[in-house]
Amino acid sequence: MIRALWLFIGLALVAAAAAWLADRPGNIAVDWQGWRIETSVAAGAVAFAVLLAAGALAYRAWLWLVRSPQTIGRARRDSRRRRGEIAVFSGMTALAAGEGPEALKLGRRAGELLDDSPLPLMLSAQAAQQAGDTTEAARLYRRMLDSPDMEFLGVRGLMIQAMRAGDTQAALRHARRAQALRPASPWVQNLLFSLQSAAGLWQEAQATLEDASRRKVLDKVTGRRHKALTLHAQAGDADAAGETEKAAALARDAHALAPEFVPAAVLAARHYQADGETGKAARVIEACWRKSPHPDLASLYLALHPADNPTARVRRITRLDRLNAGHREGRVALAGVLAAARRWHEAHAHLNNALAEREERRLFRLMAQVEEGEHGPAAAAASLQRMSAVPPDDTWVCQGCGTAAADWSPHCVHCGRFDSLVWGVAPDLPVGATVVAAADSTGATGSSAALARLSETLPNVAEAADTAEAGVALPAIRPDGANGGGDIVDASPPRA
Q: Alpha helices, DSSP H only, in 99-165?
């Protein structure tokens, strides 16, 4: 519409000029070098307009000749870019479909077409990894280290390769470099903490937790809980090395951070007991019992006063039970000391209450003792017979895989999850089964299982997070839901 208006105005001006010249006739004469040219004013105006148009056309032709190489080059570059982008898209599709060799071929083609883009290099590295060509993948990841924009992705790729190869030291080295590049990344902090804890580097793991807390990439509740676990693990190492004073201080710090954490409370109380401070040991046990009653707490509470007679032991456990009235462990502990005091009727009542809630072998074992003491050996037969047909005693159970363990450990000995053991019933443990110890028959420990789990699950968990942080849009291949990969450092509620 506007163009038509301007065209109309232009034609009107030309018509007005022509009319103006027609109303004012005249001649134009030019004498030059013996030549004389005469014409009318109108013809001269037309000739001048033709000369202007010819000059403009000649100028445009000259510009086209000068600029054509740049124009042609730009067109070729645009074409290469479009073909490269198509190759990248096709490669990502092949990668998502699990077609590693095809994705690698498309990645190389995209690399030839897109010289200055990080996408082809990343695509080729991922494709080589998926195709099983670890040597080529490592070469491509190392190339990324030379580019500031791609260094993080290269480190991440090399770290995952090291984890899959079981090279803990290399994985830790790359994880530390990744933390230096992206210190505010929750994924990096979580992964570094997981590797450090799996390798038993508890002081480094504690430092990582504290750094994550300062950067607010870890919530306070989880941070306190996991710091307590790292302190408890350090206390255990110090005990093993004969550094009892250091172990005692670490155990007390762990208990202060997580009063509900039974292993830390037991260790701290034992150190107080060894130092002759039974009052402080009792207060530690009582503080933990309020939140997490446990048989080990009741046993240690009685062990603080070995000279007590049966009646005094009943009074002590009664006092402990009142701190968390009605809890199952309180009933069982009371039944035990009442049976030892030969107060059979009261012990029987507490056992019946516990059995009404849930059956387990230790209750029938204790019931047999009570019935034998009250009515003689023959009366215990029924309870002993039933004992073999009920689920085993409560134990430490992994919330991730359901594996039962005789003792608490930072990592599940089966699946390697960190801080996954809770006190309770093994959900799928068959009758007659036994629980695993801290190290199985092959010598595998919780830490080794954790490393194995990380090498299998964390690479898949990592794909979405790291590429997004690096600003590179690749297909997301995501981790295990706790961490949704896991969360390795998660916000789960406090556990005993």
A: 100-113, 118-131, 134-144, 151-164
Sequential DSSP letters for 305-358: -TT--HHHHHHHHHHHHHTTTT-HHHHHHHHHHHHHTT-HHHHHHHHHHHHHH-
Task: At 250, list the tokens.
Answer: 């670490």
Q: Where are the domains of the chain?
A: 307-391, 393-429+448-455
Give CATH for domain 307-391: 1.25.40.10
Q: Does position 386 have pLDDT exceeding 80, yes or no?
A: yes
Q: How confident is the model at residue 416 (pLDDT cuts 50, 70, 90)?
A: confident
Among 280, 298, 202, 290, which Cα is nearest to 241's? 202
Q: Which residue has the tokens 């992206």?
A: 182
Three-class DSSP labels, 358-398: CCCHHHHHHHHHHHHHHHCHHHHHHHHHHHCCCCCCCEEEE
CA distance 178 to 142: 14
Q: pLDDT, tens digit, for every residue of 136-187?
A: 888 888 988 988 888 998 998 899 888 888 888 899 999 999 999 999 888 8
CA 382, 384, 385, 391 torsion-angle sign? positive
Q: Which amino acid is at 249?
A: A
- pLDDT value, residue 78: 66
Angle between helices 151-164 and 168-181 (to 10 degrees): 160
Whether 488 and 194 have beta carbons less than 8 Å apart is answered as yes
3-class secondary structure per residue, 471-482: CCCCCCCCCCCC
Amino acid found at 308: D
- Which residues have C-beta within 8 Å of that of residue 483, sequence separation ≥ 6? 190, 461, 489, 490
pTM: 0.70
φ, ψ of residue 84 in degrees (nearest 5): -65, -40
Radius of gyration of the CA atoms of the chain, in A: 41
* Average confidence score pLDDT of the chain: 79
Calpha distance 420→411 (Å, rounded): 7
Q: Which of the residue ranges 18-22, 240-244, 445-449 would you say has the lowest mean pLDDT? A: 445-449
Q: How far is CA 340 from the centre of its chain?
A: 50
Q: Pick from 211, 218, 268: which is nearest to 238 by CA?
A: 268
Residue 310: Cβ within 10 Å count: 14
Q: Helices 118-131 and 41-96, interaxial angle, to 10°?
A: 20
Cα-flanking dihedrals φ and ψ of residue 424, to 5°? Answer: 175, -155
Cα within 13 Å of Cα(58), Cβ side: 6
For residues 233 and 410, the answer to whether their CB atoms sit within 8 Å is: yes
Task: Provide the 10 A C-beta neighbour count for residue 353.
Answer: 15
- Among 134-148, 153-167, 388-402, 416-430, which stretch is predicted with the lowest mean pLDDT? 416-430
Assess contact for 334 and 318: CB atoms under 8 A: yes
Q: 32: which strand partners?
A: 35
